[in-house]
Description:
- By secondary structure, this protein is an alpha+beta fold.
- It is 62% helix and 8% strand.
- A hairpin with a 4-residue loop joins strand 2 (129-133) and strand 3.
Amino acid sequence: MGVPSFDLIDIIKTIQKKKFIIITITVIAAILGMIFFYAKKKKYKAEAHFLVNNPLYGDRTTLFRSFETRYVDYFGGDDDLDKVTALAGSDTVKDRIIRNCQFQVIYPGYDINELRGHAGLMSIFNKNFNVKRSEYKEIEVSYIAYDPIVAANVANMSVKVLEETYRHYYTAMKGNIYTSISDKTHQLDSTIELLTDSLANLRDKYNIYSIISPGRQNTINGEIKGGGKGFGKAIEQIQNIESIKDQLVTDRAHYISTLNEFSAAANNAMEYLKVITRALPPTAPFGPSVVLTTTVGAGLGFFFSVLFVLLLAYYRKLNEVERK
């Protein structure tokens, strides 16, 4: 018994014969697609776009150019964009965003201070939050929510938290350096004060008030008056102490200048992310439109109805052959 033929002519005839069923199923599928579109809860997607500034432009070596005028680009490079992208995917940044946006109020039923509730809110955030980079060194952050205002607020808050975290990465190091130099400056103040008292006592004891410091190269030493036992040793002691004190005073002045530079470089006026498009509450829902949803439903209905009638016709043809 041979396999019955079912060629293109048979397919066309079957479709023409069953066109009413196919059209009916197609229309029903299109209506179901339209009902599904209007019945499902609408979601809204808000987007914010920003550029990454070059952190080296706010460094003290760039702000206070005293010996070199090297060009520094305003825009951050790929490495800087990688750092921002990595921060956007970190749990530290995500936790600050959901807490600042009060996710426990937006999504009731989750306790943010409880381990399981916090994990649930983090899962919701991860599912609806997205970060993308473009070829123009632009970063886009987006968030999808049932409320358009919530979507915009979360997107804008994510940019704010990212800027604060990225800026803190650099300002914290500068702050640590500032603290270290400041502590050293206080130590120098105490040492200079002790040396000053020692010099004052020696000068008053031997009546030596001339400037005899060998460290002051541009000072012309005048005639040193006085005499007596121990006078020469006193001069040597004054010169030794004075040279150390002068060097410490010079170092202290340099430290204070450096402190001012680091203080300016760590100022909050420095922006490390530049927002070029702020997220606004979207007016249209996220996802396929009603026309597309209806068309897809009709297409699926047409495809499966045609497949069904063809399979049914081929099955009947097989039965006819077996009976013969």
